[in-house]
Amino acid sequence: MSSLPRPTGPRPARLRRVDAVDVRRRQLIEATIEAIADVGFNATTIAEIARRADVSTGLVSFHFGDKDGLLEATLRHLARDLASTAAAQMRQASSPRARVQAVIDTNLGPNQFERRIGTVWLAFWGQVPHSPRFARVQQAYQRRIASNLRHALRPLLAPKAAHALAETIAAMIDGLWLRATLAGDADGHEVRSVAGTFVDNQFMLLGQSR
Amino acid sequence: MSSLPRPTGPRPARLRRVDAVDVRRRQLIEATIEAIADVGFNATTIAEIARRADVSTGLVSFHFGDKDGLLEATLRHLARDLASTAAAQMRQASSPRARVQAVIDTNLGPNQFERRIGTVWLAFWGQVPHSPRFARVQQAYQRRIASNLRHALRPLLAPKAAHALAETIAAMIDGLWLRATLAGDADGHEVRSVAGTFVDNQFMLLGQSR
Amino acid sequence: MSSLPRPTGPRPARLRRVDAVDVRRRQLIEATIEAIADVGFNATTIAEIARRADVSTGLVSFHFGDKDGLLEATLRHLARDLASTAAAQMRQASSPRARVQAVIDTNLGPNQFERRIGTVWLAFWGQVPHSPRFARVQQAYQRRIASNLRHALRPLLAPKAAHALAETIAAMIDGLWLRATLAGDADGHEVRSVAGTFVDNQFMLLGQSR
Amino acid sequence: MSSLPRPTGPRPARLRRVDAVDVRRRQLIEATIEAIADVGFNATTIAEIARRADVSTGLVSFHFGDKDGLLEATLRHLARDLASTAAAQMRQASSPRARVQAVIDTNLGPNQFERRIGTVWLAFWGQVPHSPRFARVQQAYQRRIASNLRHALRPLLAPKAAHALAETIAAMIDGLWLRATLAGDADGHEVRSVAGTFVDNQFMLLGQSR
DNA sequence: CATGAATGAGAATTCATTCAT
DNA sequence: CATGAATGAATTCTCATTCAT
Predict the structure, then answer these.
(1) How many structural domains are present in chain D?
(2) pLDDT tier for residue A19 given thresholds of 50, 70 and 90
């Protein structure tokens, strides 16, 4: 309608096709997360997801092939989200202790204690042992946490010791998260401080053992 | 058919009615555990369970009302199993440290790392946020661990500190278990030693802080 | 209700379980034949079949696994029917010529020209090139016709010549049947006489060539 | 955009509009034939056809209205192909016997034994009894064969006899084709010779009966 | 107590068709 | 002319539950 000369360049007035598709995919993934959080894994049907995303049921297969494809994309989305948060927090930390705390804050951060997120992770974990697709994503996530922690501890410890402590801290993080989520605790504050104290203690012991 | 008076006494030749029923219930619960472990929560149908138990599908509703009843009974069975193992190990422990170790050995014992058991717990946990029935059982289990640990630590610590340390140890136990199970590690040995070392460190710190 | 002593033996008053199951299977197969004849292969849905058999849709998978299983069973039923009719007619024929006529009468008999039957065969044949299951049944049927004809001709001809003539007669039978069915002709009478004349001619030629 | 007068004449540089459209239609029809031959009638979806023709799914409705329109056009294409081949072969034949042979060679020619073509005819025939559109095309084809044969036989026989023999030969042709196609035989050579011998015999009998 | 045939609601998936771009 | 995202009805298959035997 405008008679002004369109600026040449990569930017058209409307959303580009490919972007619109990405938006739709995101929309379906969000709807999936909400459905799992609200009604659980079993009750999360394609119809339920489509209803929440306000699209037709057929669209899921169009964009994700089948339900499993959508679920895997959803799990990947959750994992990627966590990873990018972790990366951002790690960049801002300037000491080993701070970097460890960054990992803790990411994994036990408020986001992760939202009912919306926590129950979804839990639901996926319940499927992991019987879904190679989920297992792959889950393993990548698990390795990334440990790797982040090892990297943070490297300046202080020999590789083997760094590995052991990283695994211990990772377990503590996951355990605290798990118990809080299963108990329905919404508050991550106390949990984060427990984890912090735990790490402080470990670092104190490290200082002594030197 | 015999009109002779039945000898009263400790044991009739045949199984008493009530015992036969218990055997059937146990048989169905075992089949359920195996089915969940083998094919996952979603693929565990009544037909699948009945096939494994070598009974007809109709029998489930007879003994457990409906599928959900069977599942809840199965979860209770798992929890009770763990509790009785814990009680037995606790009785034999004579020091606070040994009692803590008993909790660790129970929860990270070989049983719990059987694929058969671990994936089943995980599967149930995935349902906990959306099943009040499961949630109740799960909460009881979670409280029992913490209570066992608090009881073990009471001789050494003030109630509040005991509570905090108990929660920390419980989190460590669950975290180690979770990571090992999700990663498909079958070996509980290493995990138990990590937990032991962790507790040793905590006790060492306790000694210092006095 | 009767107080007479039951005759011991294999025959209970009511239908035996296994017989009832057979009746149900037969019922579903008949419904399938009618559905294909009436509305065609594509429009023959499980719901349509169940409606005609006056049972629920779930019963199909219970008895035949899936739709394909029912379709294969239906094709086998048609083929077996034809085979048993052929066998009966062959037994009553006392000369080579009569035996050939028996094959003709079976395959071009009134049954085969019922709309109910003809269109169903045709529908299956359309699927044969893409269904190994159907192809197997079809091949068995095709071989049986040729074998019947060869057997009838054996007293008159050397094996090689018998084979050739059998194939020719079989082709004539199938071709007549096909054209009549495709044209919607309900009348098998004319077709049978054409086939008969054709065979007479062939036999006449045989007589001359000797 | 050009305002120059288009040069009238035999051929413009670009394809004319109407030709380009014809090319597209042909392209879609060929893709349909290949799809039916490869995956069967039921699995031949519009998406499958579009994929093979390397166009979008929407194009089908544009050019053929709907799927059924495309299928009918495909069947007509097959029939027209056969008819034009037959016409060409007939023109070159100079005797009644040769003209009959031309019909045989056309209908049992190598083309018709290509898997690509044979299974497609068969698939359509399976639908004929339930599709008036297909039935019309099929009847036209069937009549044409018979008419060609009658025409070839007219110099030798009275109309009634010509009709009868034409039907017999047509049945033989279709029967041979059918059995060969259903059996998956790729070779038309043997089949053509069987048909030839058959006709020779018939002609010999004709000579005798005069 | 136990069986297993039968039901029927509900789930995933497919696919012809439409339509804004 | 052409695209392909979107729709939504139709279909198959699954499965917890019931109930006559």
Answers:
(1) 1
(2) confident
pLDDT, tens digit, for every residue of C130-173? 999 999 999 998 899 899 999 999 999 999 999 989 999 999 99
Kindly state whether residue C4 falls inside one of the protein's structural domains.
no
B76-110: pLDDT as tens digits = 999 999 989 998 999 999 999 999 999 999 999 88
D39 part of contact set with chain C, CB < 8 Å: yes
CA–CA separation, D95 vs A62, rounded Å?
A: 61
Which range (B161-175, C14-28, C94-108) has the least confidence? Answer: C14-28
Cα B45 to Cα B67: distance, rounded to the nearest angstrom: 9
CATH number of the domain that B37 lies in? 1.10.10.60
Give the domain CATH number at C75.
1.10.357.10
- DSSP annotation of C16 reads P
How many angstroms is C1' of E12 away from CA of C61? 17
Please list, in sequence order, all residues whose beta carbon lies within 8 angstroms of the beta carbon of residue C137, skipping any fewer than 6 positions away: C72, C75, C76, C79
Chain mean position to CA B21: 22
Nearest CA in chain D to C176: D171
Q: What is the pLDDT of residue B6?
A: 54
Do C77 and C34 share a domain, yes or no? no
Between chains, do C178 and D176 touch, taking CB under 8 Å as contact? no
A58 strand F contact, CB < 7 Å:
yes
Residues B85 and B187 in one domain: yes
Query: Which pLDDT band, with edges at 50, 70 and 90, does C1 fall under?
Result: very low
Domain presence at residue A2? no
Q: Is residue A164 part of a domain?
A: yes
Give, in order, the Cα–Cα distances in Å from C191 to each of B20, B184, C195: 71, 71, 6
| Residue C1 domain-assigned (yes or no) | no
- In terms of pLDDT, which residue wins out, C100 or B115? C100
Residue B62: CB atoms within 10 A of its CB come to: 11
Q: What is the pTM of this model?
A: 0.87
Do residues B122 and B190 share a domain?
A: yes
Containing structural domain, residue B202: 74-209
A184 touches B: beta carbon within 8 Å: yes
